[in-house]
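Lab notebook, bench 4. The sequencing result for the construct came back, and we need a structural model before the next group meeting so we can plan mutations. Quick request posted to the team channel:

Model the 3D structure of this chain.
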Amino acid sequence: MLESQIQAKITKRLKENGWFVTKLIQTSTNGIPDLMAIRDGVVIFLEVKQPGKKASPLQEHQIEGLIRCGVEARVVSSVEDIEMYCR
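Done. Here's the predicted structure in token form:
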């Protein structure tokens, strides 16, 4: 499955569960995760990869920085990876 297809499924699932979701297409910060989701004051950043693929070192660095700022940020590769947010 293409990364864009995985992103679409994840976005749909989160939106069904009340999340505001936006794809971060072009930002002034290289390596920022693909998706940002917000619900009830909680912000999560998701870097979507095909199964078996890894985030680049820059993407990992940005994810670690976001976590240090107190928000959720992680690499995901399926809808199952975000089910914890769908309650």
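Strands lie at 20-23, 35-39, 42-48, 72-76.
Will bring this to the meeting.
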